[in-house]
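Cont'd.
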Amino acid sequence: MKKTSSKILKAKKAKKVNPAPSSKKLGSTGSGVKKPISKFLKRVISKISKKRLKKEPKQTELVLQPLSSSVPLGVLREKVAQETTLLDRKCPTGLTAVKEATPGEAQYDLPVNYGDNRIVILPRDPWWLHTYWDISQSKINEVISSISDYDQEGLAWILRVYDVTPKGMASPGGIKGFSSSGANSFFDLDINSLVNNWYINVNQPEREWCVEIGLKNHLGKFFPVARSNIAKTPYFGISSQTDEEWTLPDEEYYKILGVLDYGKSSGERQKNFEQYFRQQISSPAASWGISSLSTQQQRAKDKFFLEVATELILYGKTEPDAEVKVEGKKVKLRKDGTFSLRYALPVGDFKFEVTAVSKNKKHKERKAPAVKRYDK
Amino acid sequence: MEKGYLALILHAHLPFVRHPEYKEFLEERWLFEALTETYIPLLEVVDSLDKDGVDFCLTLNLSPTLCSMFDDELLKARYLNYLNNMVELTELEVERNRFNPQIYKLSLMYYHRFTRVKKKFLNTYNQNLLLEFKKYQDKGYLEIITCAATHGFLPLLSINEQAVRAQIRVGINSYRKFFSCEPKGIWLPECGYFEGLDKILKEEGIKYFILEAHGVLFSRPRPKFGVYSSYYTKEKIAVFGRDQESSKNVWSSIEGYPGDYNYRDYYRDVGFDSDYDYIKPYISPDGARISTGIKYYRITQAGPHKEPYSPEAASEKAAEHAGNFMFNREKQVEHLYSILGRKPIITAPYDAELFGHWWFEGIQWLNFLIRKVAYDQNTIKLITPSRYLNIYPKNQVVAPSPSSWGYKGYNEMWLDGSNDWIYPHLHRAQNIMMEAAKKYGNPDDIRVRILNQMARELLLAQSSDWAFIMKTGTFSEYAKKRTVTHLGRFYALENYLEKSSVNYEVLEDIEKKDNVFPEISYSAYHP
């Protein structure tokens, strides 16, 4: 299901970004390399910023209220105490005064990147990893300046994905002292250098992975810029490994799983079970989560519709201290003696007997409007 | 003698939503609606079971953020406002529907419901639901388990182990404060598990956790009893796997019980159906129509035509479905008992809010089910995970599979194009928090306050709810804003430490707004 011809799934965000006007190759001649790269990257960064920040101000620093009353921590307690005393003494509504001074609606923003030269991988499922990276311009310059002029030809960004699963049953955490030559195997992915994250189809559950981001030249020589943590893809499938003390025959075992008619050989059953399972866990009904609190109304969108209903408003006024009843039920009066009632009005005849009695019970009034609702 | 056990597990959680800076805030309604429709009705069921002397037990997870909101004075006051407003609306509804007998009856039902809930909340429970839940745990009916502090999805935070530890430790501390004992089990947020989590759980004193079915089924080596037994990880923490069959009966809105045509329709609501001017005071403060909880129709059929709801017919259905559920579990247990050579446990966890809020009759169903299990059969008995471990203290040792109960079973629900942008920020903040906790070994009071508040902001930003909402679309702007705001506050505070200068008013303002976990200690980030 997750097989694609290419090993790459572009992040959704990446699609929104227009393709770079120049090619991915970072330069073809030795002499002019450094400048084009940094210009190119600047453009890249500014594009990403535009996309991320959209309407927000073009800046990468945190926005916070001006630190008007910033004071060194050491003297702070004293200062606060003074302020509090002041407020208590001079301003009885001290709280309000403080509130006016506080920035109630600070608008926060996050930087697009931190330039901390990191690449991180996260397992998404048994077949896919997610990776993000944050590489500073100076780090890129540093790596490039260490590459000889000859080797700079055709430099392009790639991700090198290493399988670093320890041999045998060693503890997780990857091959000890992993160096790029000690990996079990690796493959390279050309990446769109406009993005800062990627989904990698490793297509193998229960293996450990490490990813390097770096530059590769026309001869296939790789210059790593940063290396990720090690992460393991989750397990998939029923283990064939069993425990002597705790073993059931396969026949019996698949009965527990509720797989009774899924095939004759245990291999067939296992395969069918796994297929069934993939479907099961793909079912979106698995968790309602907080979406159960969504308040959107569903309606078949394809159908034109018209709904009409009628209501009747009955309103009036009397002395504010009088007692008013409509069809025998007491009605709440507003302070000025007015009242208003609202009724859903289905098809039919309706009468509204309204009575009012003055506070001293001496006066009584009765009105009885009636309506007929019908469809023509 | 029983042949097996049913462990009903309810997971009650809402993210921390509290906005004192606004007079009214739409998303605070999540709590108010869940209180009215799920949490208080659930307590009423437990009250009635207790009063009738029914033998039962339930496992209940109350997430630390939910407990904090139950305990918050501002939210309590706002909940009462909400209830008053709803009582007022139902009064108008009773009057308005006087000439439509079927709907009139339903208006009255809602009027009585809201007034009853208000009375219960004020007078019976004295606005202190936690005390009520604690009472039933002390009586042995409920086994209350904890959760990660803000329901952070741990597999995607685990790049920094200490960040996971802090989520768990702060959650446990909050539990101790409210329930005066140690939690036996934990509900892992979204059942999210990664290799090595069991070790952290052990170090924090947790005895068991629950995983989605394949988290257990895909264990290495093969788990002998499928999901129908407890297992130990190599750290000797017990793990239970969710039973697919019983969960589908209840979860699925199509094949499951909640889709029955007699049950109340969720989408037809007076918030959408009424004349705008009339309903305006009772909907979103910004004037958008929203669900009010007053719904007059039953599901009826697949199309848009809906018939009025009949509480009696729906109630009968709920009883029938409870009987059906119990019958299926009996068959399941008989079958498993004959194969396994031990009494199986059927672990059936559900989001608590499904009952009452989404599936209106779900609370009744639960009530019927518990009573039927107690009186109408002898094959199954209700149990809690810790009691099962008392019966079967010896278990196979397995390594559970990293997994979750979310869409597609692993991490994708919280890691895709809509929400993956949060992780670089969260991971970086986690590292900064840990370094700061290490760096300021013996800080003065003000630095302690700043560090504690940084911990709160980080935890709040880590709530899995934000990533989930970004993915599902509804309220996604709010979720983004929460993530950015908490991280923004986190960095603002960090800046104070860096510069050794503080804007005291800003600090106080942030403390007042994000006042979750008052007992927090930033040392949770110190290994």
